[in-house]
Amino acid sequence: MAGQSATPLPLVVHGARALGLSLTDGQLRQLDELARLLAERAKRFSLTSIRTFDDIQVAHLLDSLTPVPYIDHLAENDQNESRTDEAIRVVDVGSGAGLPGLVLAIALPAIEVTLVEATSKKAAFIDEAISVLGLQNARVIQGRAEDVGRDPQFRERFNVAIARAVASSPTLVELLVPLLRVGGRAIFMKTEQAADEVRASGRALEALDSVVERVVEVRGIASLRNRMLIIVKKRSNSDGRYPRRVGVPHHHPIGL
Predict the structure, then answer these.
(1) Does pLDDT of 144 surpass 60?
(2) Looking at the domain assignment, is residue 29 inside a domain?
(3) Residue 206 within any structural domain of the chain
(4) How far apart are alpha carbons 217 and 38 in whole angstroms?
(5) Residues 33-39: contacts with CB within 8 Å, 24+ apart?
(6) Is 2 domain-assigned?
(7) Is 143 a member of any domain?
(8) pTM of this prediction?
(9) Over the range 242-251, which residues count as b (16 or more CB within 10 Å of their CB) and which as e?
(10) Can you give the CATH number for the domain in which 210 is found?
């Protein structure tokens, strides 16, 4: 494919090192196959406007790796505290083309990743990618986050909930926090406007009894200089009123 180097995913390898990550040859092969799938299926499945191989490496694969050190750290602490070998469960809400969920499943094979996507074409692509990549630790659910958050099978079942380019932070608080067990973390992948979004989320955080634990600026990767991670900790069981019915959290965020 045009634009590829003899070294597999050189931009991903370089960026991963800056994040403190060491990817195995097997993981790089899976990421390479995912990049190919994204490039080949982008138009047919209306996945993304980013379609060149180099751009996919940076804007999709590398960007999706940015939460890995923090999820890995949370997973290690959670297992130490609970003294259990149960797999850490991560849910990717509004997964779109399977990002970051598919990349997280590749980079962290010990975790279990559930990808939630409402659009049938995109959910079909994610399902195909899981099969092609041979991911035993990933599954896709076609549905709206509001409905999934009210389903007893998924409500308050996850250690980590994550969203990338989905909605404003007040909306994400309402959509993600009900999916978390008490003590779990939500990760919002944002840009340099993160501080403004944190300030706007006060009422939503209060309603869902959660707190912003930290805001992380991704450093050392010039191509991702605007990536920020807002990490929210859930403190108690979620009020049964949330999430509200489909569409309401987006159109009428709590406190706005």
Answers:
(1) yes
(2) no
(3) yes
(4) 27
(5) 33/132, 33/133, 34/61, 34/98, 34/102, 34/103, 34/106, 34/129, 34/133, 35/9, 35/60, 35/61, 36/1, 37/125, 37/128, 37/129, 37/132, 38/97, 39/1
(6) no
(7) yes
(8) 0.93
(9) bbeeeeebee
(10) 3.40.50.150
